[in-house]
Design goal:
- The protein is of the alpha/beta class.
- It has one domain (34-204): Rossmann fold (3-Layer(aba) Sandwich).
- It is built from nine helices and nine strands.
- It has helices at residues 6-14, 35-38, 56-67, 73-84, 102-108, 112-124, 145-152, 178-189, 210-215; strands at 17-18, 25-26, 50-53, 94-97, 127-128, 132-134, 156-158, 166-174, 194-202.
- The strands form three sheets. A five-stranded parallel sheet has the order 3-9-8-4-5, with helices on both faces. The chain has a two-stranded antiparallel ribbon with strand order 1-2. A two-stranded antiparallel ribbon has the order 6-7.
- Helix 8 (178-189) links the parallel strand 8 (166-174) and strand 9 (194-202).
- Helix 4 packs across helix 6 (112-124).
- It starts with 5 loop residues before the first helix and ends in a 14-residue tail after the last helix.
- The relative contact order is 0.15.
- The model is unreliable at 208-229 (pLDDT under 50).
- The structure holds zinc ion.
- Residues 19, 21-22, 24, 33-34, 36-37 line the site of zinc ion (ZN).
Length: 229
Amino acid sequence: MASPAPAKRLLNLFFLFLCPGCGRRVPVKGSRLCAWCLTRVYPVPGAGPAAFLHRGVMREMMIRLKYSGERHLGGVLAEMALEEWNRIPSPGDTVTCVPSSPATLRRRGYNQVSVIARRLAALAGCRFTEVLSRKPGPSQVGLSARERRLNLEGAFHTVGTVPGGRIWLLDDVLATGETLRQASGALRRGGAADVIPLAVNFRETRRGSMIEERIGETEPEGREDRRDS
Ligand SMILES: [Zn+2]
């Protein structure tokens, strides 16, 4: 193929944007990933609350948002998930998020789920409000599913007035579903009539998972797996 004319080359150079997934320069602006990164995105089929498997580039961006302070990735994750979820918020609804524990919030300085949820609300034309609080508690690290459930019981409560209408409750990574279950329960106890849980990523089980076998790659336990979901 003939190389582009000098003017075109100059134009291409001028209008290159960084792919948010890998940092390569690509000729597309916005949250869209480069062709290479798109091969490392695994959408979750079906009508579940999560949009993507917690693998590949979606996992990497989630880790960078959470641990490297790259808050702009919250917008990328929100935009991509919005295109993938089967049910999405409508104008008039409210978007809220699973809160961080006070200690995590102090250490990190922000709640990464809130960063995603704010952008999600803006894109969907909804209002965003933080109505849940999380009491200090021990980490979920190394706990069994039952211990995680017990650990989270009563961990969430509402603060202020819970908005009427439909509330979309967002979490970043869905694992056992216990966090969204407990947080949804707290919203309902606080007066919410209609709560719909959403998650960006889904971390599948390590053993006996069809999905794991199909993808055929094993990732080491990362520090994001020590999360409190
Ligand atoms: Zn890329």
